[in-house]
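Reply to dn_fold:

You asked what the input looked like. This is it:
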Amino acid sequence: MATLTRIVRGACACALAGAAFAASAHASAQEAAPAGTDATVNPTVARQQAHEIAKGDPPRWYRDDPAQQTLRKELGAALQEAQNACRKAPTAERKSCMQEARATWQRETAQLGKPMPRQ
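and this is what came back:
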């Protein structure tokens, strides 16, 4: 029984020593590279980040995407309705009607990227 007790105490001591070593290694790693610095970033990634930062903010950050997505959906629905109406037109008028519907859709889609005039 005494041997078993010594083995258990030895195992516990080893486990505690291992845990203490891991905690101290983790703490020293944090001291060497404090959070919020680039010290832990891969050099290749750091160069890519510096290149992107030098170019400035991406334009997509300043676009009102949800509104544009809604407008694109509405324009697509309008094109679909126009094409459905064209399919019901006489055969002789169908081709020109479809071309006009596509041209209107392209023109209005191109205007999405431009600022809207104030009314």
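The first helix runs from residue 2 to 32.
Hope that clears it up.
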